[in-house]
Write a structure and sequence with these properties.
Blueprint: H1 2-13, H2 15-34, H3 48-55, H4 58-66, H5 82-97, H6 99-105, H7 109-141, H8 154-181, H9 186-212, H10 217-240, E1 242-249, E2 252-254, E3 257-259, E4 263-269, H11 276-285, H12 298-304, H13 310-331, H14 334-343, E5 346-347, H15 355-388, H16 393-396, H17 401-424
Antiparallel strand pairs: 1-4, 1-5, 2-3
Helix pairs in contact: 2-8, 5-6, 5-7, 6-7, 7-8, 8-9, 9-10, 9-17, 10-17, 11-13, 13-15, 14-15
């Protein structure tokens, strides 16, 4: 405890780090405040039906978690940062298909600015589809008395669409400012804050269910917290696990100085795909729900739409494994890595530079992705096992899935940023031994 207090004191001794932390906290408070500002033209007292409908819907419930409850509050930040995430994924995939975006990715800072500009344009296009769809859902869920100007008012639809688009763009701006002048990746930090904001309410609901319903009481609550701790530890191990490939650089004599001749490592992550396979798999698992409209396919839709059933979770796990291989294949390019090594005079000991090195890296990535994808699939379906053990549905979301992976990854990245500032000012890090490795650390 004494060392923890001393570390916190050292953090606030560094003026730049202190300003970054306070600046980040200030923008996070702005985001949380905006999550409770209801869209103009809606009566806040009539939102109980919306919140209950979102809690029972898998896709809307997931989006509500990412927005920190803003979706269920019908707030000006209801769509949150997810349209920007969707646009970023599309732009990233276009970078594999279209030569123009491939060229931008290799142009450094200027290319990054152009890619960010294209991402913003695509975000607005996504919002022009999602905002009216969200308003249509409000009209179908809320009673007519909830709309001050009337449910079919064109003025309300127009103004609400503009407000929702402006709210998401403002959240994007908050994320960019946190990245530039705060700590860590601002977009990821905003998503993490939205997830953490749901934790107190979920924990309180679990405590009430254990004590009020006489379902295990204090003992079961302690067991749940202990299991949650073990799950967090396992996910941290998954996020940080790497396979190091040794790289030897040839010696070069320039004048009377020697360059190179050192051994370094290429850190290949066990889970190079991150949380994206779960997001892709969840998106596909909502497709069977559309087949419930027809009598012939209603039975199949009921089986595949039951997120507590065997076949739903089996197909979900298989999709997570498949998308892990797919996303790893498009993000990790062994040929590019081998060419960069060859260009800089590096080689893997015992492996010929060039094509043989690329094949060697590809084989290793294929082998380490298998256990990583299986473990990721287990993390994805852990909330189901938690619900089977009697855990409240809201609290069970923190036992795995997208929420847990984002939470762990962003916390590790933020701690890594803080530790780098401490070590740069010759202070001890956050840990007495070892160093914190974020998702991008080696």
């Amino acid at each position: 405890m004494k060392r923890l207090i001393e570390t916190i004191r050292n953090i606030f001794k560094i003026e730049e780090l202190r300003k970054r932390i306070l600046f980040t906290l200030g923008l996070v408070l702005v985001f949380r405040f905006g999550s409770y500002v209801v869209i103009p033209g809606i009566n806040p007292e009539a939102l109980s039906n919306l919140q209950s409908q979102i809690e029972g819907n898998g896709l809307l419930g997931l989006l509500d978690i990412f927005s920190g409850g803003a979706l269920g509050n019908a707030s000006i930040f209801a769509l949150g940062i997810m349209p920007y995430i969707s646009a970023s994924i599309v732009i990233q995939l276009l970078g594999i298909v279209l030569p123009y975006f491939q060229k931008l990715q290799k142009e450094g800072e200027s290319g990054r600015r152009k890619i960010n500009q294209w991402t913003r344009y695509l975000t607005i296009i996504v919002l022009l589809v999602q905002a009216p769809a969200y308003l249509a859902n409000l009209h179908a869920t809320l009673p007519s008395a909830a709309f001050v100007l009337g449910p079919s008012s064109f003025l309300f639809t127009l103004t609400a669409t503009i407000v929702l688009i402006s709210g998401t763009m403002f959240v994007m701006w908050l994320g960019e400012k946190i990245t530039d002048k705060g700590i860590g990746n601002g977009v990821s930090l905003i998503i993490m804050v939205g997830i953490i904001a749901r934790l107190p309410h979920a924990l309180l609901a679990e405590i009430n269910s254990r004590f009020a319903d006489q379902t295990g009481g204090f003992v079961m609550l302690v067991v749940e917290i202990f299991v949650l701790f073990l799950v967090f530890a396992a996910v941290i191990a998954l996020v940080q696990a790497v396979r190091k490939i040794p790289v030897q650089y040839a010696k070069r004599i320039v004048g009377n100085k020697q360059y190179g001749g050192v051994r370094q490592y290429i850190p290949l992550k066990i889970n190079a795909a991150g949380v994206m396979p779960i997001i892709f798999a969840q998106a596909l698992m909502f497709i069977p729900l559309f087949f419930g409209r027809w009598e012939a396919t209603r039975g199949i839709a009921a089986v595949l739409g039951n997120n507590n059933g065997f076949w739903y979770n089996f197909i979900f796990a298989v999709l997570v494994i498949a998308f892990t291989y797919f996303y790893t294949a498009i993000t990790v390019n062994p040929n590019s890595m081998a060419d960069d090594m060859k260009r800089n005079g590096g080689f893997v000991p015992g492996i010929k530079p060039g094509k043989k090195t690329a094949e060697y890296i590809d084989i290793i990535m294929t082998r380490i992705t298998l256990p990583g994808s299986i473990f990721l699939a287990m993390v994805a379906i852990l909330p189901v096992f938690a619900r089977m053990m009697g855990v409240n549905n809201q609290f069970a979301q923190f036992y795995g899935g997208t929420s847990l992976l984002i939470l762990v990854g962003v916390i590790l990245d933020t701690l890594k940023q803080i530790e780098s500032h401490l070590l740069m000012r010759h202070y001890d890090g956050l840990m007495k031994t070892g160093r914190i490795k974020g998702r991008s650390g080696n």
